[in-house]
Each structure stands twice: as structure tokens, then as C-alpha cells.
Amino acid sequence: MADLKPEIMPVVMSGGSGTRLWPASRSHCPKQFLPLVNDTSMIQDTLQRLDGLDGLSAPLVICNEAHRFLVAEQLRQIDQPHNGILLEPVGRNTAPAVALAALHALSEGSDPLLLVLAADHVIRDKLAFHVAIGKAAQAAEKGALVTFGIVPTQAETGYGYIRAGEQTGVAEGGLGESLPVEAFVEKPDFETAQRYVDSGDYFWNSGMFLFRASRYIEELQRFEPAIVAACQNALQSEHPDLDFIRLDDEAFKACPDNSIDYAVMEKTEFAVMVPLDAGWSDVGSWSALWDIAEKDAAGNVTKGDVLIADVEGSYLSSSERLIGAVGVKDLVVIETADAILVASKDRVQDVKTVVNQLKAAKRSEATDQALVYRPWGSYQSVDTGDRFQVKHIQVKPGQQLSLQKHHHRAEHWIVVNGTARVTCGDKTFLISENHSTYIPIGEVHRLENPGKIPLDLIEVQTGSYLGEDDIERLDDIYGR
User: What is the pTM of this model?
Assistant: First the structure.
């Protein structure tokens, strides 16, 4: 394994929405938080594949406000120490996000090499990945801005490409086993992509980078000084909040929207590329998941409760109910608790059109799974009808919901496991298993779990309006 002498701080960007993997991925819980490839989520995989590298500091994670508790919980699940979870008030693309990370590190008195990673990539060959990072570190130590170019396995129209020059060597005083970047190329049509692959001079653009924090800021200042200025202004009022690093919202909203490629890498003369052949995929669609998954003799991938007969080349995934398929070919069928997708495998890039229709209709299936995570635990809708809704609520030990009230609904709580501490009006009392209580419309209330095991209860809501926005929070330990 390569010896990584300089300090390297992983910067994990976790801002994607993953709409092409609907209905599993939704805007409030996108693909990086889902176990799509194995039993752990993609952001957990991203961090765990760094295990064994020398010279690494704890990672810094960048995410948006809505995902902050998901990130914190998933890091906690794998006992992952971190340098903070930096919250972007609004999305401004990758160039400002990484500028925030670099400026934050520099303000802490260090100037590490930043290993910039997306939270939702698959990399099969961990050792090859580590070796490539070692090579990139050699170049970055000499002032280069390094990107990782994926050795292409086929003509692919869904990726941008990097055209590389001839290799430079350490013996000639160059930048190690890296290649000079001659050009970044936009996503091509199929014929052009095939020519790129046949030439051997082009690599897929992975969107992963390695460079020293100060060098990135220097180059960004040369080409996009407005981004640096806006990020500096946003960081002036930086303050910790639990696991999170909060910025000045208005200052960051003034920041230009731009990617690292456009803002820096396409303009700087210090860009180099390290080839990476490690089973990489950005898992941008259901067909991409089919590509990397283990298949049966007929080319099918099945997950969950699935029965098939005379089926070929298909991806079928069940989370709740049985899927039966007969005599079909090249289909994608995804079943979740509240939605089912059926698509031709060669049309899965168009799943976002369904998501757009859901958003236009303001339907919750565009944003939330049936199982919704909150900082205190989770809830899942069990049944919904005219003027009623039934939920299963689970509260983690020692956690509590906000002190709140509802203007349009009453709630009935039945404890099925654990013990609940309930505040209702001016009274606070305990409820044990198989007991219940009633929260009238407009009454101030709070639910807590004072025990050491998860609290499970059934909530029955009744009223004229049952939307999640009918919550007036009076006190909340999570700052919502």
C-alpha cells in the first residue's frame, strides 16, 4: 500500500437528490443514505472504504440543512469520528462547497490535502483505490490539482470525459504517475463516446479530486474570486450546533453557482489526472445498479420477495410485497411501501419525469418514503383515509419530540413497547405498554422516551387536515 505521509482530510459531499432512483430514493432521503448495493448505505460505504489508508484525518461532510440529522445518524451507526458536518444553506454546486471545506480547514490552522469524494459512488476494488490516492497525493504535494479519471469499460453517454496527455515520471522531476489534463469534455453522443473509448486517450470524469486546501483557494481566487469572497463572508459567522457547522445564510446565498470543473479544473495549468480502474460507478440509474449487481443465468437481478418465470435481463426489487413476473424482458420493477415503478430498462433515465409530475401535484411520494427518519427516531404511515391516519412511531432511547401543538388534528397514542413520558397541557406522566392517552386539538404536548430501549407506539390522527405542516413547535432541542 502507498505510504501517505501528508495529512489528507476526506471531504464527503452529500448534497444529491437521486431522483433517477425513485421510488427508493427521494429528496428527503436520497440514494446516498440507502443500502442499494449491500447492507450499509452508500455514504457509509464511502467512508468505510478509506479504512486502512495512512495519513488520514477524520472526514468533513458537506450536506444541506434537510439531511443533517440523517448524516449524523449514519455516521453514528458506524462509529465514524468526523471533523464536523458543514451545512450549506442553499445548493451552490461543487466549487463553493469545496471552497467552504478548504477555508474551514485553513481557519483551523491546518492546510491538509483535501480528498474530495461524492457520497454516492460505488468502488469495488478498495486496494486499487488506495493505490490511486497514494499516486494522487504525490502530485498534490507538488502543487498539482488532481482529478481521478475512470478507465472506461464501454462507450457511455451519461458521463463527462477527460482527455489525458502523455504520462510524466518522477525520474524526470514530474508529478509521479499522473497524466496532464488536456481537456474536459461534455457528455457525448454514443458515436463520439465510442471514438473516445477506442482512442485510449479519454477517461470518465469521476468528480473526485485531491489537492492542498491552500492551492485550491489560490486557483479559485484567480478564476472565480467572487466565490472565494462569498464563502469567506459565510464562514465569518460560522458556529457549531451539535454535530453541525452553520454558516451565514444570506452571505452564502450571494455565492455564484459553479462546479469545480468549470470554475478551476478547465482553466488551471496545474490540473493532472490519475487513472483509476477500481470498479467505479456513480449508480445514476436503475440500469447502472443492474450493471454492477450479481445476476442469475438469465441476466436477472432480484431483491426481496420476488418470484419469476421466463424473465430475462430484468431488475426486480421488493421491499414490502411479493412481486410476480412472467414472460418479460429488460424490465425494471421497484416496489416500495407506497409506490411501484415499472420501466423499460433502456428508459430508466426518464424516471425523473414521473418525479416531476409528483412534485407538480405536490404529492408526498416525491419527497418522503413511507418510513421517515427524524433526529429523535422515525415514523411510518400504516394507513390513511378520510379524516384519519395511522402511524407507527419509534423514539430512540433518551430522545424527545418537540413541544408542539396542532390546529387541525387530535392524536391518540398507544404504547406497544417501552415507556413513554407524555406532556399534555400542564400535566406530565408516564405510559407503559398496552396503555394509551389522548391529545386534543390545539393542546400543547410532547413525547419523550426516558428508557433504555426504543419506544414504539401507534398514533391515530383524526381531524380535518392531517398534513405534516400542521405543527407549531414551541420548543425543540434539535433547533428545527
Answer: 0.86
